[in-house]
Design a protein that fits this description.
62% helix; Four Helix Bundle (Hemerythrin (Met), subunit A); single chain; TIM Barrel; Alpha-Beta Plaits; alpha/beta
C-alpha cells in the first residue's frame, strides 16, 4: 500500500479544519436565525390569534343573546347555543393549541378554569332558552357580561407571557451571539495560527522531501555503483564471476528450462610470464585489450555473453544448436585473442585454451557445469595448450576414478602403505655408482604393488601431495642415514618433487626439516623437477624455490630434459646443476642417427655450462654402447638394475663397491639379485 506524503497529510488536515470551521459557523447562524424566527414570529402570531378568537366568539355570544332579548326568532335562538359551544371549546382547548405549551402558567390556568366553570353552569340555561324559555335570556346576558374582565385577561395573558419569553430569548440569543462571536474569533485566530504552522510545516516538509529525494538519488547512484562493483569487472568492463553466476541461476534455475547452452572456460596460456617479465601493468593492459576484443565479438555475434571469471580466466555462455557451432566459436575466439599486442618494444602473442561443458547433456546443475568446464580446460592444457576440449563421460569416468584413487591414497598414507623403491645411476667411465633415485611405490595389502601409472599422476596433482612429499622425504632421509652410518657409497640420493607440493609453498621447509631431522648433508641429496614445470612457472615461483634449495647446498636436477624445449639461455639461468635426458631419445638413438645427434648435442650443451648429465631409459647393451662415446655420463635403466626395495638396494650398493656395475656378467648377477 502506497503511503501518503507528509505534505499531502498536512494539506488534508488543513482542508478538514477549514470545512469543520465553515460547518460550525453555518450551524451557529442557522441556530440563531431559527430561534429568532421561532420566538419572535411564530409564537407571537399564535398568541395574538388565540386572543382575538376568544374575544370575537365572546362578543358573538353576547350579540346572539341580545338579539333574542329584543326580537327572538327561531334562527336567532338556535344561534345562541352555537356561539356558546364555540366559545366554550376555544376556552377549554386554549392550552392544547400548537405553540402554547411555553405560554401556559398558573394564572392562565386559574382564569381558564374560572371561565370554563361559569360557562358550564350556563349550559342548562342555554338548553332552556332553546326550548322556549325566553325569560332566562336577560339574566344570562347579565351573568355573561360579568365575565368580560376574565375574558380580557384570558386573551391578554398569553400575549404577555409570549412577550416576556421573547425578551428572555433575545437576551439569551444576544449572550449566545456574543459567546459565539468570541468562539468564532478565537477559531479564526487559532485557525490563522494553525494555517501558519501548517504552512511552516509544509515548507519544512517540502525542504526535507527535497533533501530526501537528493539522498535517494545519491543512494540510487551508490546502489548502481555497488551493482557495477558487484557485477562488473573494473579492468575489462565485462561482467564478473558474480554476474555470470547470477545469469546461470536466472537461466538454469527456472523449472522446465530447455534452451541448450554451452559454458566455456577460457584461460590465457602462460599469462604469469607476462606479469613476471613485463610487469603487472602489461598484464592488466593485456587483460583490458582482450576484454574489449571479447566484448566486441560477443556484441557482433549475438547469443554469446563473455565474463571475466578472475585472474587470467574468462568464461562465456553460448546459446547453441550443435557442437559444430561451439567449435566454430572457439576457433574464432582463438583467432581474436591470438592477435599480437604491443607493449613498448615488446610484442605479446596471447595464447588461449578452452574447456567446454554442455547443458543439459552434461548436467543441469550450475556448480557441476562450471566444474566440468574447468576439468575440460585442464584436459586441454594437458594436451598441449592452444586448443579446446569438451567435457565427456569418459573424462568424468577418469576423474571419478582419480577421485577414488585419491581417497585410497589418503587411507594408504594413514596405514603407511606408501614406500620407496630405489634405482641406481652408474658412471659410463668408471662403472661406479653416482647416485640413487628414490621412486614412490604403493604396496597395497590386497593388490600388492600398484603400478605407478595408476597413482603417481593423481598423487602429484592432489591435495595429498604435500603429505605424500613429506612421507617421501622422511623415507629417503632414513635410507640415506642408514647407508651413511654403514659406510655405503651411494653418490647422491635423488627424490622427485610434486608440482602441487611446489604450489602449496611448504616444500623447502618440509625438505629441510626432514634433512635436519636425520642429519643428512645437503651435498648427498638431489631433487628432480620436470622440465615442463620449471618452464611453465605459472602457479608458483618454482625458480625461486629451486634457488633456495641450491642456496642450502641441495643439488637440483632437471628431469625429462628435451620434452619441454628449454633453450640454452634457459639452462644458463636456471638454478640447476644437472639434467636427465628423457628416455624417449635414449631408446631410439642406437638405430636413429637423428636421435643420436640430438642426444650428443644435449650432452655437449650441458657439459659446456657445467651441468651433470644422467641418461635414463638405458635398457639394453646397445643403449649403453651408444652413450659411452659421449663422455662421462651417468646412466639409469633396466640394463643396470630395476627399481628395488631398500634391503635389495643396500645389498646392491654393497656389491657395487667392489664390482664394475656395467660389466655384463656382474650386471646380470646384480639384476638377478635385485
Amino acid at each position: 500500500m502506497k503511503r501518503a506524503k507528509p505534505t499531502n497529510l498536512l494539506a488534508r488536515a488543513f482542508g478538514v479544519s477549514a470545512v469543520a470551521f465553515l460547518i460550525l459557523v453555518g450551524i451557529a447562524v442557522y441556530f440563531l436565525s431559527e430561534n429568532e424566527r421561532a420566538l419572535t414570529q411564530e409564537t407571537y402570531d399564535e398568541s395574538g390569534i388565540a386572543s382575538m378568537q376568544i374575544r370575537i366568539h365572546y362578543e358573538s355570544l353576547l350579540r346572539a343573546i341580545a338579539v333574542n332579548e329584543s326580537n327572538p326568532t327561531d334562527k336567532s335562538i338556535s344561534d345562541v347555543p352555537l356561539q356558546y359551544g364555540i366559545l366554550a371549546a376555544r376556552v377549554i382547548g386554549l392550552r392544547d393549541r400548537p405553540g402554547y405549551e411555553n405560554l401556559i402558567d398558573s394564572e392562565l390556568l386559574s382564569i381558564q378554569k374560572e371561565i370554563s366553570g361559569a360557562l358550564q353552569n350556563e349550559e342548562a340555561v342555554i338548553d332552556a332558552i332553546v326550548k322556549g324559555d325566553l325569560a332566562l335570556i336577560a339574566p344570562l346576558f347579565e351573568r355573561l357580561e360579568q365575565l368580560r374582565p376574565q375574558i380580557a385577561r384570558l386573551a391578554h395573558r398569553p400575549v404577555q407571557i409570549a412577550s416576556e419569553l421573547r425578551s428572555k430569548a433575545r437576551a439569551n440569543l444576544s449572550r449566545i451571539a456574543k459567546w459565539l462571536t468570541i468562539v468564532i474569533c478565537m477559531l479564526i485566530i487559532s485557525g490563522t495560527g494553525f494555517a501558519a504552522i501548517i504552512w511552516r510545516q509544509m515548507r519544512e516538509v517540502t525542504m526535507r522531501q527535497s533533501l530526501v529525494e537528493k539522498s535517494r538519488d545519491k543512494l540510487r547512484k551508490a546502489k548502481r555503483k555497488l551493482e557495477e562493483i558487484a557485477y562488473y569487472d573494473g579492468l575489462t568492463g565485462l561482467g564478473n564471476r558474480a554476474s555470470c553466476q547470477k545469469e546461470l541461476v536466472d537461466r538454469l534455475g527456472v523449472p522446465g528450462h530447455r534452451d541448450p547452452i554451452a559454458f566455456i572456460q577460457i584461460d590465457l596460456d602462460k599469462f604469469k610470464r607476462v606479469n613476471d617479465t613485463l610487469g603487472h601493468a602489461a598484464g592488466d593492459k593485456l587483460l583490458s585489450v582482450l576484454g574489449d576484443r571479447l566484448r566486441c565479438f560477443s556484441d557482433s555475434l549475438g547469443g554469446l555473453t563473455v565474463y571475466r571469471w578472475g585472474g587470467d580466466e574468462f568464461v562465456a555462455i553460448l546459446d547453441r544448436t550443435n557442437d559444430t557451432d561451439i567449435a566454430l566459436v572457439c576457433h574464432e575466439l582463438t583467432d581474436i585473442i591470438s592477435v599480437p599486442f604491443e607493449w613498448g618494444h615488446t610484442v605479446i602473442r596471447p595464447a588461449v585454451s578452452f574447456g567446454v561443458s554442455l547443458c543439459p547433456e552434461d548436467t543441469r546443475d550450475i556448480e557441476e557445469l562450471v566444474v566440468y568446464a574447468d576439468l575440460a580446460l585442464y584436459e586441454a592444457k594437458k594436451m598441449g595448450r592452444g586448443n579446446f576440449q569438451f567435457f565427456t563421460a569418459e573424462l568424468k569416468h577418469r576423474i571419478d576414478k582419480e577421485a577414488d584413487v585419491e581417497e585410497e591414497l589418503r587411507n594408504a598414507l594413514k596405514r603407511s602403505e606408501l614406500e620407496l623403491h630405489f634405482q641406481p645411476q652408474v658412471s659410463t667411465l668408471t662403472g661406479k655408482v653416482t647416485g640413487v633415485e628414490a621412486l614412490l611405490r604403493w604396496n597395497h595389502p590386497q593388490r600388492g604393488l600398484v603400478s605407478p601409472g595408476e597413482f603417481i599422476g593423481v598423487a602429484d596433482n592432489s591435495k595429498l601431495a604435500p603429505a605424500i612429499g613429506r612421507r617421501v622425504f622422511d623415507l629417503a632421509m632414513q635410507a640415506a642415514r642408514e647407508w651413511i652410518d654403514e659406510g655405503i657409497e651411494f653418490g647422491r640420493l635423488a627424490v622427485n618433487l610434486s608440482p602441487q607440493h611446489l604450489r602449496q609453498g611448504s616444500l623447502v621447509d618440509d625438505f629441510c626439516a626432514s634433512m635436519h631431522c636425520h642429519s643428512i648433508p645437503p651435498s648427498v641429496l638431489c631433487v628432480e623437477l620436470l622440465e615442463s614445470i620449471l618452464l611453465d612457472d605459472a602457479d608458483a615461483n618454482v625458480s625461486q624455490t629451486m634457488q633456495e634449495l641450491r642456496n642450502r647446498g641441495v643439488n637440483v636436477e632437471l628431469d625429462d630434459f628435451g620434452t619441454g624445449y628449454a633453450s640454452l639461455s634457459h639452462l644458463s639461468t636456471m638454478p640447476i646443476n644437472g639434467l636427465k635426458v628423457d628416455q624417449s631419445f635414449i631408446r631410439r638413438m642406437h638405430n636413429d642417427p637423428k636421435h643420436m645427434n640430438i642426444v650428443s648435442s644435449l650432452v655437449a650443451m650441458a657439459k659446456l655450462i657445467g651441468l651433470d648429465v644422467v641418461c635414463e631409459g638405458v635398457e639394453t647393451r646397445e643403449h649403453m654402447e651408444s652413450i659411452k662415446p659421449l663422455g662421462n655420463c651417468s646412466i639409469q635403466g633396466y640394463y643396470i638394475a630395476r627399481p628395488m626395495g631398500f634391503a635389495a638396494m643396500t645389498e646392491w650398493l654393497e656389491r657395487s663397491q667392489t664390482e664394475n656395475c656395467i660389466d655384463i656378467p656382474t650386471a646380470r648377477l646384480i639384476r638377478k639379485s635385485g
